[in-house]
């Protein structure tokens, strides 16, 4: 089955997959241009793979948590495609996709720092982060497959970096993701993982945002195994910045 994966929780990410295999993908980080970038990216990815959108079997979309406007662009686009093509739309936590992306980015020999569990943190703005705690089932041996062998044990939640750090104090959990990178003094963790061999080719920068190809593969795996998928609705953990003026609220 051909699966189109979208995520606009931070960057604009689009990927086309056949099962868990990525056929084409692209990603752009421009927090103010989600609406302008997403549709052209969908067209570009489909063209790169030589696929007509009518051949799609399903759409996967990251549902956040994330700030209001950017996240809504991805979810609405996924729903519109699903309606137009008559295909299902499956939601998945963008923080789950970020966790899988962090594990997928590194060679197996470089995943050791994450083997005891870790925190994923996305930029929630207002000097806060959207975050979740990730536990690894089976330690380092479970990390051979970034799509399984781990689970979310806390979150999704939104807090200040200091509150997140206080909540995991004493656990020694590293933090990864754009939110962690922004507040690295408070949420320490690796930005680069170096493999045991010391070879430069065994070193990788960890992703700041969910990789759309990994998000799609995660949804494909969960469809096959009955794992957790979510309704394609934006996950907002606080009210949007824009508010109805008090003088108009009662009209």
UniProtKB/TrEMBL annotation:
One of its GO terms (biological process) is tRNA threonylcarbamoyladenosine modification. Residues 32-163 form the Gcp-like domain. Pfam families: TsaD. Transmembrane segments: none annotated. InterPro entries: ATPase_NBD, Gcp-like_dom, T6A_TsaB. GO terms for cellular component: cytosol. It comes from the Bacteria. This is tRNA threonylcarbamoyl adenosine modification protein YeaZ. The lineage of its organism: Bacteria, Bacillati, Actinomycetota, Actinomycetes, Kineosporiales.
